[in-house]
């Protein structure tokens, strides 16, 4: 199994470490910065005797080296700076991913593509349109990360292990994300039966602001995003048929078409094997529709030609 990661910064290199440590396949790091991918690969090679794990990892500046990839993870692009919204990244990151997408189409047409670059919903749509790949083979990472952040904050509030919590967040990967209260459970019990409405509102606000909080404090999030990437890669490589959150192409689900938004899905060796439409309250449907409208308006800014 060949897994290429385009972008050898903090997220990409840490995802590479998790993937090789789990024995999921041979990893190739790609980055346009001279020597960066190679240096990260050499460093990860040196960790093998300490970890007592045998794995293959390499680094390159040549995008042509992704030929034959089974999975391609795209983390390349500018990171969000303090005070910057994800939407402000559109123009620069869209131009970066346009070049990557056209190369992907030519060099590695059989790959499953996981998009991580922000603004996620827009960049995933761009990659899908420019590669011409099946929608089941192009999806984004965000909702699983948002759900993990929500679960973590709930676990802190209730002083329970995060493993006891099944949190669900759908919609846009950004300020318009939609944590689902009734479908979020703690040991099988709905969250709204355990925590009062005011506290839930506070947890939702903290979840929505979590990414910006991390950016303001340290400049970038990479531990949790890389863990979410590795989870997706594992589900594909091991054909786990795992139900998790992803930024997926909607073709009638929730009454929406030709748009990428976060929802739950079944992930296996073929990529997205099923998009799962959740039962939403009227208020949640309205919020999701508002997210979709926001994304649809921003799609006009993408260089799709």
Number of domains: 2
Could you tell me the number of beta strands?
A: 14
- CATH homologous superfamily caption of the largest domain: Lactate dehydrogenase/glycoside hydrolase, family 4, C-terminal
SSE-based structural type:
alpha/beta
Radius of gyration, whole Å: 19 Å
Strand order of the main beta sheet, please?
Answer: 3-2-1-4-5-6
Q: Which helices and strands, and how do they pair?
A:
Elements: E1 2-6, H1 10-21, E2 26-30, H2 36-46, H3 48-51, E3 57-60, E4 71-74, H4 90-107, E5 112-115, H5 120-131, E6 138-140, H6 142-158, E7 165-166, E8 169-170, E9 178-179, E10 185-186, E11 189-190, H7 197-218, H8 223-237, E12 242-251, E13 257-268, E14 271-276, H9 282-298
Parallel strand pairs: 1-2, 1-4, 2-3, 4-5, 5-6
Antiparallel strand pairs: 7-10, 8-9, 10-11, 12-13, 13-14
Helix pairs in contact: 1-8, 4-5, 6-7
What does this structure look like?
It is a single chain. The protein is α/β, with parallel strands linked by helices. It has two domains: 2-142, Rossmann fold (3-Layer(aba) Sandwich); 143-301, Lactate dehydrogenase/glycoside hydrolase, family 4, C-terminal (L-2-Hydroxyisocaproate Dehydrogenase, Chain A, domain 2), CATH 3.90.110.10. Helices cover 42% and strands 21% of the residues. It contains nine helices and 14 strands. It has a six-stranded parallel β-sheet with strand order 3-2-1-4-5-6. A three-stranded antiparallel β-sheet has the order 7-10-11, with helices on one face. Strand 13 and strand 14 (271-276) form a beta hairpin. Helix 1 (10-21) crosses helix 8, helix 4 packs parallel to helix 5 and helix 6 (142-158) packs across helix 7 (197-218). The protein is globular. The mean pLDDT is 95.
């Amino acid at each position: 199994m060949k897994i290429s990661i385009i972008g050898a910064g903090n997220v990409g290199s840490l995802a590479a470490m998790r993937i090789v440590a789990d024995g999921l396949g041979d990893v190739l790091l790609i980055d346009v910065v001279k020597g960066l991918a190679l240096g990260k690969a050499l460093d990860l090679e040196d960790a093998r005797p300490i970890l007592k794990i045998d794995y293959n990892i390499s680094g390159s500046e040549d995008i042509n080296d992704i030929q034959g990839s089974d999975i391609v993870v795209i983390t390349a692009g500018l990171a969000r700076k303090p005070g910057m919204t994800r939407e402000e990244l559109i123009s620069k990151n869209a131009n970066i991913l346009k070049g990557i997408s056209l190369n992907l189409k030519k060099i590695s047409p059989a790959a499953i593509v996981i998009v991580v670059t922000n603004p996620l919903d827009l960049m995933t749509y761009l990659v899908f349109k420019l590669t011409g790949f099946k929608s089941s083979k192009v999806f984004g990472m965000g909702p699983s990360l948002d759900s993990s952040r929500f679960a973590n904050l709930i676990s802190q509030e209730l002083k329970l292990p995060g493993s006891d919590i099944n949190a669900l967040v759908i919609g846009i990967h950004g300020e318009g994300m939609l944590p689902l209260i009734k479908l979020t459970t703690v040991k099988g019990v709905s969250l709204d039966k355990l925590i009062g409405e005011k506290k839930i509102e506070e947890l939702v606000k903290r979840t929505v602001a979590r990414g910006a909080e991390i950016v303001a404090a340290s400049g970038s999030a990479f531990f949790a995003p890389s863990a979410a990437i590795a989870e997706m890669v594992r589900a594909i490589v091991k054909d786990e048929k795992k139900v998790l959150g992803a930024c997926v192409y909607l073709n009638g689900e929730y009454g929406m078409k030709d748009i990428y938004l976060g929802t739950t899905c079944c992930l296996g060796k073929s990529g997205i094997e099923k998009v799962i439409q959740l039962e939403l309250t009227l208020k949640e449907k309205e919020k999701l529709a508002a997210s979709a409208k926001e994304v649809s308006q921003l799609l006009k800014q993408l260089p799709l030609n």
